[in-house]
Task: inverse folding
């Protein structure tokens, strides 16, 4: 556990140089959120995406410093090395989510103070659902990208990820197109009811499952790597 | 004591997209290193030095053979062995965005040291390597010589018993490489064992107690520099090496 803590500390130290950039992005995010009452709902998604993507940049730091060989010479094993990355990235996604949940009501209050004629109600349930949705989205992206990075390295892994995400979007759009073309009737009310009942547990379980499967795949890839 | 017994590493490489071939980076390499010894692993580029040291450092898994440190083997005591060794490669860079202090703190943490012990050790190392001036500066802003000292500091943080230095002086200027050589001499005085690979034969001749010459993954000679020169009837290790491989032609 001490080793995992040490490896996570390494990533935190590396990201500390992002302090200023993060603060600027945070301000930009708030300003963007204030653009309209509909935009404010996307603040948690922006926060999670931003923090999640920054967390991924720690792979680039390891690549640039060619530290992989050095890390393997430390009193640790491949399992702990991969696990520490996942713990760090999941923690960052959660931090992004918390940040979004905290910032959104503040931005809404500011907006209400600026435009008292257009009062926006703070809907914590909606904020929570949006946050979970954002966490699901970034978890899906990272669950695909991390094994790609372990397989091809940070730079190539990023390109592979774009291809994979593009393929995923194409698949979803394709299925949607086929469904409408064939004329399968979708009962939206039924879907809405189902999501209202089971949406949150499904999202949480999916996030956990995605990271777990991704970790297993990454570990397998990393074990096969020589030095 | 480090005991390396018949250490072999086989890799697969692709000749073209379809055809692949197996080749031995190292073949049945055997030697031992005692306390307070500097062992030089000499050979040209591609001889198998890096693969050999990476296996000894536990970074690569050998295809065959065994390595033991004080009687402990990697299979059962990987973490215990890694606590005793420090690996430094000429290829390894440092995290540019970290300060020396942060880097050492991070390394100490990975070695399982308590925070207060890390702090104490950082101060001790800063005294030894005269790093107080730039301890809190970002590594990316340091000079080559200062960076080299940080590299050494990283090895020293857990006070290892064994040093594995892979071409640590390659590409460095005379002052920076001297920092490494002085460091090796000092650690030898303390009874530490150093395994050191280089293709600078003159450098090895001056600093190593014993030398293992490898070429194409196989040991072609081993002994003290004096013994090797006597055996090959040459005056320096460079000539001895060429004599053993049967010279070198421009075509090669």
Result:
């Amino acid at each position: 556990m001490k080793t995992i803590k040490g490896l996570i500390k390494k990533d935190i130290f590396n990201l500390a140089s992002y302090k200023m950039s993060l603060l600027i992005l945070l301000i930009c995010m708030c300003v963007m959120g204030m653009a309209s009452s509909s935009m404010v709902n996307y603040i948690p998604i922006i926060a999670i995406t931003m923090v999640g993507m920054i967390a991924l940049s720690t792979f680039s730091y390891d690549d640039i410093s060619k530290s992989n060989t050095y890390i393997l010479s430390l009193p640790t094993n491949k399992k702990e090395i991969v696990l520490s990355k996942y713990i760090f990235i999941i923690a960052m996604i959660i931090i992004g989510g918390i940040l979004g949940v905290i910032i959104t009501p503040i931005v809404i209050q500011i907006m209400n103070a600026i435009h008292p004629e257009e009062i926006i109600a703070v809907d914590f349930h909606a904020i929570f659902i949006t946050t979970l949705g954002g966490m699901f989205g970034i978890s899906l992206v990272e669950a695909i990208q991390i094994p790609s990075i372990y397989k091809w390295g940070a730079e190539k892994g990023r390109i592979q990820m774009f291809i994979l995400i593009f393929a995923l979007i194409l698949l979803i759009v394709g299925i949607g197109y086929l469904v409408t073309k064939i004329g399968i009737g979708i009962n939206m009310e039924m879907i809405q009811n189902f999501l209202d009942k089971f949406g949150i547990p499904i999202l949480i379980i999916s996030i956990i499952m995605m990271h777990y499967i991704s970790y297993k795949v990454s570990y397998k890839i990393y074990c096969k790597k020589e030095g | 004591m480090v005991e390396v017994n018949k250490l072999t590493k086989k890799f697969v490489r692709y000749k073209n997209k379809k055809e692949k071939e197996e080749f031995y980076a190292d073949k049945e390499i055997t030697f031992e290193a005692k306390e307070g010894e500097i062992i030089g692993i000499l050979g040209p580029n591609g001889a198998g030095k890096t693969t050999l040291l990476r296996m000894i450092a536990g970074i690569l898994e050998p295809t065959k053979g065994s390595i033991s440190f004080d009687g402990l083997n990697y299979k059962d005591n990987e973490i215990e062995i890694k606590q005793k060794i420090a690996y430094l490669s000429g290829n390894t860079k440092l995290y540019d965005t970290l300060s020396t202090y942060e880097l050492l703190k991070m390394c100490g943490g990975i070695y399982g040291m308590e925070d207060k012990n890390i702090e104490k050790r950082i101060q001790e190392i800063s005294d030894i390597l005269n790093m107080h001036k730039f301890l809190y500066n970002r590594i990316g802003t340091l000079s080559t010589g200062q960076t080299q000292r940080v590299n050494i500091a990283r090895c020293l943080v857990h006070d290892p018993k064994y040093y594995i230095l892979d071409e640590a002086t390659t590409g460095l200027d005379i002052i920076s490489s001297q920092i490494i050589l002085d460091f090796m001499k000092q650690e030898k005085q303390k009874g530490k064992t150093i395994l050191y690979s280089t293709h600078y034969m003159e450098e090895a001749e001056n600093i190593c107690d014993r030398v293992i010459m490898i070429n194409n993954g196989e040991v072609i000679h081993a002994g003290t520099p004096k013994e090797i020169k006597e055996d090959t009837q040459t005056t320096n290790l460079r000539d001895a090496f060429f004599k053993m491989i049967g010279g070198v032609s421009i075509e090669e």
Chain B touches chain A through 34 residues (CB under 8 Å).
